[in-house]
Amino acid sequence: MVKICCLGAGYVGGPTMAVIALKCPSIEVVVVDISVARINAWNGDPLPIYEPGLDEVVKSCRGRNLFFSTDIEKHVSEADIIFVSVNTPTKTRGLGAGKAADLTYWESAARMIADVSKSDKIVVEKSTVPVKTAEAIEKILTHNSNGIHFQILSNPEFLAEGTAIEDLFKPDRVLIGGRETPEGRKAVQALKDVYAHWVPEDRIITTNLWSAELSKLAANAFLAQRISSVNAMSALCEATGADVTEVAYAVGKDSRIGPKFLNASVGFGGSCFQKDILNLVYICECNGLPEVANYWKQVIKINDYQKSRFVNRVVSSMFNTVSGKKIAILGFAFKKDTGDTRETPAIDVCKGLLGDKAKVSIYDPQVTEDQIQRDLAMNKFDWDHPIHLQPMSPTAVKQVSMAWDAYEATKDAHGICILTEWDEFKKLDYARIYEGMQKPAFVFDGRNVVDAEKLRAIGFIVYSIGKPLDPWLKDMPAVA
Ligand code: UDX
Ligand code: UDX
Ligand code: ADP
User: Fold this and answer.
1) Which residues cross the membrane (predicted)?
2) Residue 370 burial (CB < 10 Å; 0-12/13-18/19+)?
């Protein structure tokens, strides 16, 4: 029986291993983590992350061939294949701060693997890491190996949160990078055999190590670039009277461009896009390619611009002041169907509104109050993000409240900002909400989920990203 051990029971490690266990009953999969609380949660109910379909998958194989444990050394030493899926946040201090990936967790994982291994292992890089990390890890492993052979593979994960299980069941592709030596090829084949339990062979791509590592950064950079491109267009649409949805549809019909990932929004968030682009920028700079670095940096700058543009629109529409006004925030997660708030645009929008002394009432169906407080109090590293404000002052903290539902959040509010595209926000009783609000009542739809005409018929003044402006907004001062 093949044994797999995964280091890191996070958003990537947890769902990926659960699906491998489900699809490969002959393989024993143990997910380990240094966090006892996380492992306890994976062994309990509810699971530590919200992901549609995940519960069913975990419940059907937990205790059979899927295990969650804190006994890291035991399971690493017993495994044939070790996936490393630990966190790689952006460095906040030292060389490359604000851009380079912090590989502390990775390095300590590699040293531990070298220390406890008593048989040959395949070590699979699963978390996104800078190009050439595999080489560094290989050095750590081989210099501490005691005669044991390690093969390093890069097998980047492409799942998106909210659709992780679907993406894992039917991946567009599985990418495996390895050394081009007989041992390297053997290791690639061993991992290929795991995926071949459910992924058609023509979707399993094999490359050299560095191509696999770079492909992950490139794919995320291209995806983020599409969003920044359509968001840049959204500003121009508002200025000219074009409708970004119509433009995106027309553009996406070109089969060379394709229709997906062209939804204008208040900005992209999530743990990957910004981190991976910053990483790419850093690698370009280190390799003497400043023009390429600047090209990709612009994708983040437009994203920051989009968030500040949204805040400016809110403030300017409401007579240039939101001071003391209650603003309801509907949605805090970085996208629907997840409770994850990493890099969510809601953090910057809330901080922007709080900076203008608004009272903010937040409702999100999956994000806890504690998480929101932590996010708003967090100090952002000082890269050249104009919008990332300082942590909130104690007075600003008092301006934030949490609501149990959208109706409570919007009660007596002057305005509503929709920041996550949760399905339930499409179905709210907006006539009831309008009744409970101060007048004029504003809706700022950062995800284009509401039917603006219907809301206008009720009496709302509605701003939708990239759409022809409400007559009210046209008369307001221009947004920078
Ligand atoms: C992303 C990649 O899609 C995935 O392949 C990779 O493995 C990890 O990073 P994720 O961050 O989970 O996944 O979600 P994704 O669906 O890509 O959305 C990222 C952000 O872009 C969200 O804030 C989302 O709301 C935003 N977005 C997405 C848009 O604003 N418009 C779009 O058209 C699509
Ligand atoms: C383009 C658009 O494709 C077409 O829809 C529009 O109506 C007019 O402009 P055209 O300029 O004739 O058409 O050719 P196209 O095939 O788009 O190529 C433009 C340039 O891009 C060429 O120099 C081509 O060599 C280059 N190219 C194209 C690349 O370098 N790489 C590619 O992957 C594709
Ligand atoms: P991702 O979104 O990439 O999955 P997460 O932050 O959700 O990232 O998960 C990473 C997990 O890795 C965390 O639960 C963290 O506790 C765990 N971790 C970090 N270092 C180690 C290590 N050396 N051994 C085991 N687990 C680790």
Assistant:
1) none
2) exposed
Verify whether ligand 3 is closer than 6 Å to residue 85 (CB atom).
yes
Strand boundaries in 16-169, DSSP class E: 28-32, 66-69, 81-84, 121-125, 150-154
Residue nearest to atom 9 of ligand 3 (CA): 10
Residues having CB within 6 Å of any atom of ligand 1: 157-161, 220, 223, 227, 261-263, 265, 268-270, 272-273, 334-335
Token code pair at residue 423? 């399905």
Q: How far is CA 119 from the centre of its chain?
A: 36
Our CA angle for 398, 400, 405, nearest 5°, is 140
What is d(CA 347, CA 342) in angstroms, rounded to the nearest whole number? 9
Our mutation pick for probing the ligand 3 site, out of 33, 35, 334, counting the most ligand atoms within 8 A of Cβ, is 33
CA-nearest residue for atom 7, ligand 3, is 10
Structure tokens at 104: 């502390």
Which residue's CA is minimally distant from atom 2 of ligand 1? 160
Q: Which positions are catalytic?
A: 272
Q: Give the atom of ligand 1 at the shortest distance from the alpha carbon of 269.
A: 23
| Interval 273-327: pLDDT, tens | 999 999 999 999 999 999 999 999 999 999 999 999 999 999 999 999 999 999 9
Measured CA to CA in angstroms, residue 389 lies from 55, 117, 356 at distances of 37, 46, 12
In tens, the pLDDT along 198-247 reads 999 999 999 999 999 999 999 999 999 999 999 999 999 999 999 999 99
Q: How many residues does the chain have?
A: 480
Question: In three state form, how does the secondary structure of 384-410 look?
Answer: CCCCCCCCCCHHHHHCEEECCCHHHHH
Yes or no: say if 249 and 258 are a contact pair by the CB < 8 Å rule.
no
Atom of ligand 3 nearest to the CA of 342: 2
Give the predicted TM-score (pTM) of the model.
0.93
Reference 157, options 337, 342, 10; nearest CA is 10
Residue matched to tokens 């009744």: 435
Both tokens assigned to 398: 């008092």
Pocket test for ligand 3, best of 105, 111, 272, 275 (most atoms within 8 A of CB): 105
Residue 354 CA to ligand 1 centre (angstroms): 26
Tens of pLDDT, residue by residue over 406-444, are: 999 999 999 999 999 999 999 999 999 999 999 999 999
Which pairs count as long-range contacts for 374-383, CB under 8 Å and 24+ apart, including other chains?
A: 375/332, 375/341, 375/344, 375/347, 376/347, 376/350, 376/351, 376/400, 378/347, 381/90, 381/92, 381/97, 381/98, 382/98, 383/98, 383/99, 383/278
Q: Which helix (H) or strand (E) holds 327?
A: strand 326-330
User: Encoding tokens for residue 425?
Assistant: 């926000």
- SS3 assignment, position 195: helix
